[in-house]
Amino acid sequence: MKKPFNNVVQSWYRKAIKHSKYRWLVVLGTLFYLLSPLDISPDVFPIVGWLDDGAVVALLVTEMSQLMVEQLQSRNKRRATQAANAFQTEDVIISDAMDADVIDVKAVIVG
Prior knowledge:
Blueprint: H1 5-18, H2 23-35, H3 46-99
């Protein structure tokens, strides 16, 4: 079964924008398309001319926001992993220190 044209365009756009090498080229090309007088349907036709621009803007905003959400999730996951590793390291240091009857404590002054 064939995919509708808009699904083909959307999947191509998504793949292109997720590829770091082509991301800014796609974003700049999208902005150029929006500002350019050459459109699929020219803006001189009041409503029909604005529909393609609206679809392109919606596609750009959707894909960029999805990309940002994915990056934030990966950054948070990486930070959580680092924090868990640091916590495990502190446990090892404390247990090693207890074996030697020495505990290293960092002093904090509140005031």
